Amino acid sequence: MKQAEIKQFGLENLKVIEVPDPKNLGPTDVLVRLRAASLNYRDSLVVEGKYNPKFPLPLVPCSDGAGDVVDIGKDVTEWKVGDKVLLTFAPKWIAKEATHAEIRHTIGGPLPGTLRELAIVPETGLVRMPHHLNYEEAATLPCAALTAWSGLFGYSQLKPGEFVVVQGTGGVSIFALQFAKLMGAKVILTSSSDDKLERGKTLGADYLINYKEIKDWGKEVRNITNKVGADHIIEVGGAGTLEQSIAACRPFGVIHLIGILAGRSGEINLLPAVMNNLKIQGLVVGGRKAFIEMNQAIEQSGLKPIVDKVFPLEKSVEAIQYLRSGSHFGKIVITI
Predict the structure, then answer these.
(1) What Å distances lie between residue 299 and 71, 94, 129, 303, CA to CA?
(2) DSSP-assigned beta bridge partners for residue 64
(3) What is the reported pLDDT for 261?
(4) Beta-carbon contacts of residue 146 (< 8 Å; ≥ 6 apart)
(5) Is pTM beyond 0.90 here?
(6) Helix (H) or strand (E) holding 309
(7) Average pLDDT for runs of 10 along the chain of length 336
(8) What's the CATH fold of domain 2-142+304-335?
(9) Which of 42, 86, 240, 330 is deepest in the core (most CB within 10 A)?
């Protein structure tokens, strides 16, 4: 079978190679023929050795994958050959909360990822694909969509009419926008690109802020919300944007801390967060039960993920370079 792997860290070392098909299917294992993977910022960091330089090498990158079941172990009861499935990011994370070991037991590092044709997966490491989606669309769901869902509906409860600030137009952000609109919330979208803001408007964004033109966008959010502040902030920038998020958030509101695109450390004035009883909720994907619930909501609503661009497996390096450029809107997919 084909797979993309790194023997040393560095994007220049990502190569597509031929390896033997996996064997030794355990009694509760499932053999999946992967058809599509999608990229997350984590994948770029993993390949460079910046996410965790202790990950074992060689390593197959990527954590999102969609495919179909081609064989099952003798004790598998949940799946049959031909089922269309998605791999879960953390195969041992089932319920709402998990142990440190369960959260760190993840595909795409340290476990082999999804840039390969065949994968042996424990039967609890899969969920069913929403019926109305193709492989490319469904492959976007395991990390970005579930992270947005966990924040808005797992660790807090978004209500109709609430204000949600969505930073940027990457995978998590666009899913947060779509989920917020499904719930009847009002979305304030921030971006440095007027073109991306206009695209966000077509998905239902109610208010648009170009943060290059309006540096103090936290104050602008308060103006939009009649000096109250937003109920939820989808925070993907990290240290570089957290102060503005704190300024934008209403008392007792929630900042969903997801990414570090604008920096992982820096001097931040946290006093307003204390004085306004803000909840800063760190987020990393979610468990299998939440994934199943999210897929039911996606299927029931007919929601379609936004796929920006599709690359073949042989162009995996170019796909990651495109991710790094920041020019995408939604998700980048690799077909396998």
Answers:
(1) 26, 21, 9, 7
(2) 38
(3) 56
(4) 89, 285, 286, 290, 291, 294
(5) yes
(6) strand 307-312
(7) 98 98 96 98 96 97 98 98 98 93 96 98 98 98 97 96 96 97 98 97 98 96 98 88 95 90 67 91 95 98 98 98 95 98
(8) Quinone Oxidoreductase; Chain A, domain 1 (3.90.180)
(9) 86
CATH of domain 156-282: 3.40.50.720
Q: Are 66 and 129 in contact (CB under 8 A)?
A: yes
Residue 75 burial (C-beta neighbours within 10 Å; 0-12, 13-18, 19+): exposed
**Letter for the amino acid at 198?**
E
Query: At which residue do the structure tokens 């978004």 appear?
Result: 158
- What are the start-end ranges of the H helices in 36-87? 41-48
The whole-angstrom separation of Cα 178 and Cα 156 is: 17
Residues forming CATH 3.90.180.10 domain(s) in the chain: 2-142+304-335
Please name the residue ranges forming H helices in the chain.
Answer: 41-48, 100-104, 135-138, 146-149, 171-182, 194-202, 217-224, 242-248, 271-275, 288-301, 316-325
- Residue 241 has what pLDDT? 87
User: b/e string for 32-67 if b means 16 or more Cβ within 10 A?
Assistant: bebbbbbbbbbbbebbbbebeeebeeebbbbbbbbb
